[in-house]
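Hi U.,

Before I forget, here's the chain from the pilot set. I'm dumping it here mostly so it's searchable later in email.
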Amino acid sequence: MNKGIEMRKWIAALALALAAPAAAQAPKIQLWRLDCGNFVMKKYGAWFSDTFQYPEGSKPLVGSCYLIRHGERYMLWDTGLSDALIAKPVDDAEQSMSLKRSLLDQLREIGSGPSRSRLSASATSIPTIPVRRNISPTPSWSSAAPIGMR
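Structure:
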């Protein structure tokens, strides 16, 4: 093989390698599960089945919130139950609801807080469930319930 052609191939390969931008590092992804309430649904089958195929009776459930970090961006999925439940749990014919710690305390414990979160969303839009609203004064995006963090 011609040495000139071989040299040109090596020079072209080197030029392409140097001209290509360095592969960007994938953003760091982290996930935290936060305790955002506890429920006992006293009529579980009536609440969670439109065909009434679940057995009658009560069933305990947990309310989880998730803080997701993607690079420098944070998203809080669901904002959980109202802090008012810490001092005064709800217990009625349909359900009981309680909360052990505030969401803000849990966020501070992991080194986050409303100022670091940019997006939030809530899966709760049931008017009888006291959800947390307006953790910060400037919501950037929300779904279902009118909650938000900046």
